[in-house]
Structures are given as C-alpha cells and as structure tokens.
Design goal:
Layout lengths: L1 H32 L7 H18 L8 E5 L6 E4 L3 E5 H7 L2 H16 L2 H9 L1 H16 L12 H19 L7 H8 L7 H4 L5 H14 L5
Bound molecules: zinc ion (ZN).
Zinc ion (ZN) binds next to helix 4 and helix 7.
C-alpha cells in the first residue's frame, strides 16, 4: 500500500513540474511574440555552423555528433544543452554584432560540453531539468525556452569553460581582435534587462576579463 502511495505522489510531482514548465513556456512565447530579430537567421545559422564545425574538428571530435541552433529570442543568451547541443539566441548576435566575439561565446559553450558540465549540472539540479528535456525535447529548444538555459555552473566551471575557449580562440583566431568584446560590452551594459538571463547564470564580466586578457597576451595573440 505504501509503495502505491509513493508512486502516486511521484506521478503527482511529475505532473506539477510539467504544468509549471508548460506555463513558463507559454509565458516565454508571449514575450517572444513581440520580438522580431533584425538579423537574417538563415545566413547567421550557416555562419555559426561553419565556425562550430571548425571548433569541433579542431579538438578532434566528430562534428556530426554536435549541433548548434540559432533561435529567435529577445534575451541575450547562449547555453549548452544535452545531446552536445548549443543554443544561441538571436538577441546575442545582435548585441555583439561581431563574429570574433560571437565565436568566443560559442567556444565557451563548447567548453561546457567538453568538460562535461552539462551532465554534472543536471545531476546537481535534479530531475526537473531532465524531465522537461524529455517532455518538451524539440519544441522547447526551438522556442528558445529550453529549461537548461538556467543551468547554473560554479565559478570554477565557468573558468574552465573560459580557459577552454580562450585556448581555442588563440589557436584558431590568434591575430583576429575582438575576442573579449562580449565581456567588454557586458560590463558596460550590466544593468540591461535583456542581459538578466545570462547574468543570472554567469560570473561578472570584469573578473573574467582579467584572466582572459592574461591568457591572450601570454600566447602573443591579439585581444
Ligand atoms: Zn558558461
């Protein structure tokens, strides 16, 4: 009897979690409805695909196992998801307006995948993120409301992803400037509500700028 109650309460919990995420999803879709990106999504997606493929091949991995999706969303954000997938919001591309700066962000997210942070984060944050992934698998990612955008990594994991990214950028784009423009812009506009989502899961730009600049200078590359 006890076992049955336990099972019922687990089922109820799953139901409540899913109703909650369905609500969050429609809220985000409402916000997205008023937003129209100025960038050409198809062209940008092609560009991002090429860069991402280059990164993945450079680290000796099979690019077919990885994917990167550009989604139309007013939040300046990017995140790594399960299944070696990265999501880039269109507002981030608009905000940066610079390929090298965007490439750094892509490299950083790839760092989270390669350092296995995504799975560790899910293990830490529990069942709900895993559940929502399976329940809303494709639609959530395509609507830019993948729950994993709120995965919060520790400062040390963020640093690991940063160091992974800066090494990759130094190797592939050594003499191309603009690598750290994302952080420069972020520290200028840290109060922008569009940045809230990103800032809620990432350490302050200033602290990251210091060690990243040091790594680029050490490699004799351009910041
Ligand atoms: Zn990160």
């Amino acid at each position: 009897m006890k076992a049955i109650f336990k099972r019922i309460s687990i089922l109820m919990l799953i139901l409540v979690i899913n109703i909650f995420f369905a609500g969050a999803s429609s809220l985000a879709n409402e916000q997205n409805a008023n937003y129209k990106t100025k960038i050409n999504l198809e062209l940008e997606q092609e560009k991002i695909d090429k860069v991402f493929q280059r990164f993945v091949e450079h680290i000796g991995k099979n690019h077919e196992k990885y994917s990167i999706n550009l989604v139309e969303s007013p939040q300046i954000n990017a995140y790594a998801s399960m299944g070696k997938r990265i999501v880039i919001n269109s507002a981030l591309v608009e905000f940066l307006n610079n390929d090298t700066a965007l490439n750094f962000v892509i490299a950083h997210e790839l760092g989270h995948i390669e350092e296995k942070h995504v799975w560790k984060g899910i293990a830490r944050q529990g069942l709900s993120s895993l559940l929502s992934y399976y329940v809303f698998k494709e639609s959530r990612v395509l609507h830019g409301v993948d729950r994993l955008h709120s995965l919060h990594y520790s400062r040390s994991k963020e640093k690991e992803a940063d160091l992974f990214a800066v090494e990759l950028m130094n190797e592939l784009y050594c003499k191309v400037p603009g690598k750290l423009q994302f952080f420069e812009k972020m520290s200028e506009q840290r109060k922008s509500p569009k940045l809230m989502e990103y800032l809620s899961t990432h350490p302050l730009a200033d602290t990251r700028l210091a060690y990243l600049e040091a790594e680029i200078t050490k490699a004799n590359c351009l910041i």
